[in-house]
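User: Structure tokens for this complex, please. No commentary.
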Amino acid sequence: MLTAYRRLLLFYPAEHREQFGQEMADVFGEAQAENQNKGAIAHCAFYVREIAGLLKGAMREHFRVVSGAHAGLSLYTGRFTMRDGFRFPKTTAVLMTIILAGLMLAIKRGEDIANSLSHVNPQIAPIQPMHLVLLSPIALMFAGFYAAGVIGWGILFALRRSGVHRLDEMSSERK
Amino acid sequence: MEQLPLTEPVLLILLSLAGEPRHGYSILKDVERMSDGRVVLSTGTLYGALRRLLDGGWIERFEERETSRGRQAYRLTAHGRRNLQSEIARMKHLTRLASLRVAAKES
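Assistant:
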């Protein structure tokens, strides 16, 4: 189960994984070992809670990466600083692509089932190809997210290149 | 970045660290103990909260030297302790107010 948990950690952005991945797996291992002696229901509840918490946490981290909060936009101090470890959120793009592919497959499968049923029972009319109607807004939405991500990353990268972070470091050194 | 008012799990994590520095598993168990088993955190929830608290400078991470594995532990910063105290003051004010209002209604 620990191996499966480590695999699920791949849903997290790389930076979070590098910083906390090993620690999270260790804590999971300890919690799992303690849970061994409990009953089957407690055992199941533990795994459900862990998997749900992990997926929710991964989504939240990806959202932070995409929204830019992760890049150090501090509302508390009113200062905008770049983190040295900031990288393009590749895992976010991969995750979105997988979700899009899943949606397309589900729609196609639904159409196939509807078409096969219409042969068995002529009263059921075949469903018109909906994927073209549904896919264009979905594809547009994903394209919009990709574009927003690329533009956001470009701005942050440009700020970093312009030496904003160096100026920030210099000012903090002076203090 | 954590903002006031704090959610219950975050408040319990901070209270857990208020007494002494702790590592991840110790925080999990302490939160469960403090809430009488009502709040059971998953590792994903715990590390999401720890991450936000670290980003906001409420807590800091350090390597435990006493253990052979040298695992990471967390402790409250002065900024975190101040924020926790102001949150506790806010809650005290609320409970006092709630008690007064409820008592006035009952009488």
